[in-house]
Amino acid sequence: MFTYSFAKYKSYYKDNLILALPIVLSQLGHTLVHMADGMIVGHFAGTVQLAAVSLVNSLFMLILVLGLGISYGLTPLIAQANGSKNKEECGHLLSNSLLINAVTSFILYGLVLLVYYKVIDHLGQSPDVVLHAKPYLQFMGISIFPLMIFQAFKQFTEGLGFTKQAMMVSIWGNVINVILGIIFVRGMFGIAPMGVSGVGLSTLIDRILMAIAMGTYVFNSKNFKTYLSEFKLFSFDFSRIKKIAKLGAPVAMQYSFEISAFSGAGILIGTIGKVEQAAHFTALSLAAFTYMLATGIANAATIKTGNNFGSKNFGSLRLSAIASYHIVIVFMSATAILFMLANNLLPYIYTSDQTVITIAAQLLILAGFFQLFDGTQAVGLGVLRGLGDVNMPTFITFLSYWVIGIPVGYLLGFEFGMGVEGIWYGLTFGLLTASILLFIRFQNRTKKLAAEKTELHQV
């Protein structure tokens, strides 16, 4: 039985992994920026500054994922157009995606300013933490503009199956970010020590260079000549804008409901204390690292699903999707074991503060438990996105994280006195709910598509 099942999925495992691995590495770029910022600040500036990075990331990640979600609306449309051999449409979609991402950048920066001037002082956080957080938040807000331009080119190339260039740009961008971050934070080569502001400035420079590199690649590579034959920078079409936004906006909401739940948890934990907040950031950053790996697998599933959906190959669509579920389960099981076995060692990546390490080590045990749920819900969203099914999954994410996850976490953490761990138990329960409901949705949608095709052939 096992041999038969493996043979049935073997080619899909290979194809999906070949597509997914570069996406996984490029997806890590977003998380590695924040991880690197935390590591540099934690080791060279101290616990208060690390708590400031945690606070900003809790707030900024919610804003960031709105932008990332909007940009992801391009990928399934590119994959579907390519699957149906409509290459010229890809160029039209790219020009309209650049407009949407540019407009989104201004809106998101407006939200950053709102947080900076109206919100951050009223969250019950330590005043010294807020003082260090504000300049870092400003730099992160400005970095949204080049990041969204980078995303337009990245999602365009990945939708066509060209995934390695974005991976390389992300890797080199993070190398530059780390080098500049250390120089700016410590104050080297005649530069005055900048503290937390230093990692903000390094992130901004990194994202500007990434946008330039990705745009240069797209417009100069022979791989995209036929796809860009109809591309015009200022050629906008409302129907295409609406099509991209119709997919991108719900995807943005899906990400925001999950990330905002973790951000909300971070703010709740910040009211307990700055040491607990630093521990939360340490454990969550490691969990976010593996989550971004899972979203890389999920994005590959979106592309494969979109290709098969565009060519109406529903049998391969279902087999490919299930293979993606298998891959993410194996991978997240491995990371769960790592978190549980090395829970006392991994926090040293960020800090040497023993109190922070003790709390973070306990949270990594819980992170190990929710790894499987986090990975499978990510793939579920990715597959459904490839089908163009985004509205019901958006409701499922809201239900899972804000109707179930956060209320349960608050109840356990504060009413039952379980503190930080209670809040994390609530998040785990929310992830479990999402993974189950999204898998049921996937099963129903793909079986319905197969049945409709069978009926069509019979007619």
Automatic annotation (TrEMBL):
<feature type="transmembrane region" description="Helical">
    <location>
        <begin position="322"/>
        <end position="342"/>
    </location>
</feature>
<protein>
    <recommendedName>
        <fullName>Multidrug-efflux transporter</fullName>
    </recommendedName>
</protein>
<keyword id="KW-0813">Transport</keyword>
<keyword id="KW-0812">Transmembrane</keyword>
<feature type="transmembrane region" description="Helical">
    <location>
        <begin position="136"/>
        <end position="153"/>
    </location>
</feature>
<feature type="transmembrane region" description="Helical">
    <location>
        <begin position="59"/>
        <end position="78"/>
    </location>
</feature>
<feature type="transmembrane region" description="Helical">
    <location>
        <begin position="191"/>
        <end position="219"/>
    </location>
</feature>
<dbReference type="InterPro" id="IPR050222">
    <property type="entry name" value="MATE_MdtK"/>
</dbReference>
<dbReference type="InterPro" id="IPR002528">
    <property type="entry name" value="MATE_fam"/>
</dbReference>
<feature type="transmembrane region" description="Helical">
    <location>
        <begin position="422"/>
        <end position="440"/>
    </location>
</feature>
<feature type="transmembrane region" description="Helical">
    <location>
        <begin position="394"/>
        <end position="416"/>
    </location>
</feature>
<dbReference type="Pfam" id="PF01554">
    <property type="entry name" value="MatE"/>
</dbReference>
<dbReference type="InterPro" id="IPR048279">
    <property type="entry name" value="MdtK-like"/>
</dbReference>
<keyword id="KW-1133">Transmembrane helix</keyword>
<feature type="transmembrane region" description="Helical">
    <location>
        <begin position="165"/>
        <end position="185"/>
    </location>
</feature>
<keyword id="KW-0050">Antiport</keyword>
<feature type="transmembrane region" description="Helical">
    <location>
        <begin position="252"/>
        <end position="272"/>
    </location>
</feature>
<feature type="transmembrane region" description="Helical">
    <location>
        <begin position="98"/>
        <end position="116"/>
    </location>
</feature>
<feature type="transmembrane region" description="Helical">
    <location>
        <begin position="278"/>
        <end position="301"/>
    </location>
</feature>
<keyword id="KW-1003">Cell membrane</keyword>
<keyword id="KW-0406">Ion transport</keyword>
<feature type="transmembrane region" description="Helical">
    <location>
        <begin position="354"/>
        <end position="373"/>
    </location>
</feature>
<keyword id="KW-0472">Membrane</keyword>
